[in-house]
Amino acid sequence: xxxxxxxxxxxxxxxxxxxxxxLQQLSSPSHCPDVAEKSSPTHxxxxxxxxxxxxxxxxxxxxHPDVFYLMEPAWHVWMTLSLGSAGQLQMAVRDLIxxxxxCDMTVFDAYMAQGPxxxxxxxxxxxxxxxxxxxxxxxxxxxxIIPSADCRILCGKQPFNMxxxxxxxxxxxxxxxxxxxxxxxLQPLLTDPSxxxxxxxxxxxxxxxxCSRQNTELELMHDSHVVMGKQWNKMKxxxxxxxxxxxxxxxxxxxxxxxxxxxxxxxxxxxxIRYEDLVRDPLTQTSKLYEFxxxxxxxxxxxxxxxxxxxxxxxxxxFDTNSxxxxxxSQAWRWALPHDKVVQLQKxxxxxxxxxxxxxxxxxxxxxxxxxxxxxxxxxx
Length: 381
Ligand SMILES: *[C@@H]1O[C@H](CO)[C@@H](O)[C@H](O)[C@H]1NC(C)=O
Ligand SMILES: *[C@@H]1O[C@H](CO)[C@@H](O)[C@H](O)[C@H]1NC(C)=O
Fold this sequence. Notes:
This protein is of the alpha/beta class. It has one domain (42-368): P-loop containing nucleotide triphosphate hydrolases (Rossmann fold). Helix content is 48%, strand content 8%. It has helices spanning 2-27, 33-36, 54-62, 75-80, 86-101, 148-155, 161-168, 187-191, 206-214, 221-228, 240-260, 264-267, 275-280, 282-293, 299-309, 326-329, 333-336, 339-348, 350-356, 364-368, and strands spanning 42-47, 67-71, 172-177, 197-203, 270-274. A 5-stranded parallel beta sheet has the order 2-3-1-4-5, sandwiched between helices. The relative contact order is 0.13. Residues 1-19 form the signal peptide. Keywords: Carbohydrate metabolism, Glycoprotein, Golgi apparatus, Membrane, Signal, Signal-anchor, Transferase, Transmembrane, Transmembrane helix.
């Protein structure tokens, strides 16, 4: 009698834990076909600076049907914590990026207004093809090239939680950021076992960035202030553009040099690309970018890349220059900037330029002579 009841008692006691184990088995990834059969996602960070063609490179990825893309998620951090400097905000930016790579969008609770949100609460959400097609929005096809202007009108009312659902349905998550100033901050993400992070470092001739920034000075004012922090108010206003470019040039040099010092296994997760090489030969360079990210260069994307880089895009295309040829746009600074400004800029960005292979012009005559080539291969430090 005693033994029987003891055995019963044991079974009785063991049941809940057996049931628990059974349920755990059911819910563990190996029993969940959605998750188990996909290999783990690839994460790509397009690391760049303002006016460097990063929106264009972002679009190359965003329009790929395997990619969930967001442009500048850290914009929300900089806008919300607007009294901080870039250095003070870098860890908040890094942690946000990590969460977004893992499709955890609750991180935006800290940076968005309370109350019901739509997917349109995201900065520049309409530049993400993934947010314009299923499961986020059913008005476009997932495999189509989707112009952001059309998407903005048709898909803005979708609820915020669609963003997370959409993100989880892709094999690649790609983010574009201009708000990192060194590689050290990002290093923990490169070694994080829950991420498979690849970094595309996009640089552009500082003289072209400078030229382009002049036309967008007001738009960039808030960001410029955050980049320079407290120093901003101490600077003479005419010196500010040069101090800014100096800070940007320095950070690009630091990132490039730090990448060369990574151990081999991580070194191959970093790719430097110059905007000028991309516009010279868009198809070859795009193919290189896709290969680095493990994405096929699909035929409709090849046609599209050829179209937009020859100025045949149908409105709202990613070169913000509508119909002019991208290659000549990348040389616009040579006739638009006064030579004395170029000389001053070449002084503050000297080391970065020589590292990245941007040759200085030594006279106004050389600056205006467009047959003079100003590109050499980047140095390996
Ligand atoms: C490329 O351009 C042609 C001619 O303007 C157009 O008919 C076609 O739809 C475009 N294709 C893509 C994928 O952009
Ligand atoms: C412009 O540059 C090219 C290539 O360096 C050179 O051959 C040519 O003489 C230059 N033209 C003028 C007007 O200086």
